[in-house]
Amino acid sequence: MGMFKAYQTPPQGETLVLKEKIVSLSGDSFDIKTLDGRPVFKVQGNAFSLSGRKEVMDVAGNHLFTIRKRLLRLHSTFYVEDPSEREIMEVAGKFSFGSSKSVATFTSEGGQRENLFMKGNFFDTRAAITDEASGQAVAVINRQLLNPRELLGGQQTYHVTVAPNVDLAVIVAMCICLDERRNEN
């Protein structure tokens, strides 16, 4: 399942740790690592971009995709572009009382249209991502509430547990969109 075959989770699944810098002159820039500390992605934000532009790169610095916000939408909507600026995925917020909801729509490498649903609790401390076709959970996001050490260090930590054979890059894009939406509120 996914768009980036090179980033499929192994048979045992994978847990990623996202430590986002809350305050940064260069925007939201952070690395995404596995639970054991192995780097997987780098994210570079632009503090002065109206679209909240975020570039996601592999560990060697190769540009994989860019996440941008669609302006003038009732609900927060983000889109993902490949390096040639072709739209490859959309993550649209949906109205929900007492929780946050989003749907990610993309075409898999096999040419199949896929939808992933993300539903979080009221404070977005936990969210589940479910595959529409199978109804199965493909990832669970847990955000630690700010503790004094993280507050002083200017970081926010997320743990993302991803099921086997799921595209890590797609899940990471959805996590970034969830965080951008949370920061807007």
TrEMBL record:
Signal peptide per UniProt: none
Pfam families in UniProt: LOR
Family recorded in the similarity comment: Belongs to the LOR family.
Protein known as: Tubby C-terminal-like domain-containing protein
Species assigned in the record: Apiospora phragmitis
